[in-house]
């Protein structure tokens, strides 16, 4: 199933390129065009780049959702069910292929970050830890996307469902400090799973991690692991169960 999904890259190179270029455009737009850094003292780039790494983990879910719904609509699932494979292998293969693309996309974004002046100040172990946290978040977001695709059921419904991803991405501390927000909004932002990962990555890299001083901000590393594990525990079995019950 993973080889099948990876083979699609050769037939749809434009989609892969767009997936890699879009996060780079977002990074350059926020760092050079729009600016920002509300609540951040000094250079905004060291604060922004780890935040954009985190936001990138939420981008591209629509491609996953669209691929799953297309398989459902074209009857591919029925053909695979006639073969000796475990329930959910199609979904797992899709998630593994998307994780591979996420690794490539993250590598591209790190390269662009270095090009615009961002630097990693931690060691190799902390770098591996930060990458691990980012990919763990991506894995959780993928299963949320797969679950939503199973709920949507049809490709034309994906566009409506994918809108839910954007509030989760922008209601985080990726591009602005919670301290600069109204108290109620800042508290909500600090408990966002993406905020936990962004804060933890900033801590590991030695970049500024401006926060409101809440428990969530002080224990960002713990939440950066706990949130994705919880989300996977909820959405992975739910998606597989819904897939297993299709047409029954």
UniProtKB/TrEMBL annotation:
Transmembrane segments: 12-35, 47-68, 89-116, 128-151, 163-185, 216-240
Subcellular location: Cell membrane; Membrane
Bilayer disposition of the protein: Multi-pass membrane protein
ABC transmembrane type-2 domain span: 14-246
InterPro entries: ABC2_TM, ABC2_TM_bact-type, ABC_2_transport, Nod_factor_ABC_transporter
Keyword terms of this UniProt record: Antibiotic resistance, Cell membrane, Membrane, Transmembrane, Transmembrane helix, Transport
Keyword Cell membrane found: yes
PANTHER family associated with the record: NODULATION PROTEIN J
Protein family per UniProt: Belongs to the ABC-2 integral membrane protein family.
Name of protein: Transport permease protein
Source species: Streptomyces rutgersensis
